[in-house]
Model the fold of this input.
Amino acid sequence: MPRLSLWRQDKSNDYNFFDSNIREQFDIGGTAFLVHKYLGPENVGEQNDSTQPNHHASSDGASELTIQDMLLMENRDRKYDPDIYELRGIYNVSDNDFDLAQFGFFLTADNLFVSFHINDMIEKLGRKLMSGDVLELPHLRDDTLLDEDKNGINKFYVVEDANRSSEGFSQTWYPHVWRVKVGPMNDTQEFQDIVESDNDIFSTYKSEIEISEAVEKGASEAYDGYIETDHLYGQDDYGYGKTSLAKGTQFPASPAEGDEFLRTDFNPPRMYVRSGSKWVYAPVPSTDPTWEGNTYVQRRFTNNDATINNSDSKQGLSAVIKPKADV
Done:
């Protein structure tokens, strides 16, 4: 009588029996994952740099095994398959809580560990999931956006690591489950091949460019801004370091001609000068009409290089506060 053993040198009927049952578990109880398959680095042409070879010009071409930047060991320009593959996967759903025990705010459940059936993955995808592949989760679709004219948005994750799952080994000692660690996909250069299809939804690139252009335009235009630092208020006409400036939320009852008053109930505070029977708004004069000139109107005070009584006006704290021995 032959010795009983579930281990075989080849994958026998026992392996096929376990594998078919495990696959059925994923088909019935798993959720759909849409896979954006990573194909390799994009063709960016010759860089005249030995650390960034043009794999597309070689006979082998570019693939998942090629590296775009040999110095930094990264693939910044990634090419993804235009076809989308659907796999069934299983993972534990958890709440995204903020961890306040660290410096700043961290999401404790920002990474997921997803399990896939190996043979099902090989048949549909042609290979195992690897770092760089992007997973789209339709069941996390946000279809209740504030803008009713916008389409719903699925949740995107990028594969960071992949390996065999410890719970995926059957009694035959062969693995059946592939476990991947995924993190949220960001709007970065690596994933432009995916997000460029609809920048208004997936990417903030267009909004960031508009903000940058607005800032540059504002820097070149005249700006009648106000100074928020009332104790340093004014330029030469008012004097630097004026700490006795009258201020408040309403004007004084008996002002004299030429009195200056800072209204602090405005944001930012505004300077007024009494002229006749009215208070005249007195913006800070500046030889530089741009917003930079008005914002840094106190720069001559903070960067005062003058000398008073053989002492520099601008000194470090080490020169003002002398160390004293603790006795």
About this structure: Confidence is low (pLDDT under 50) at residues 226-242. The two ends are 93 Å apart (CA to CA). The helical segments are 13-29, 118-125, 192-195, 199-202, 205-219, 291-295, 299-302, 317-320.
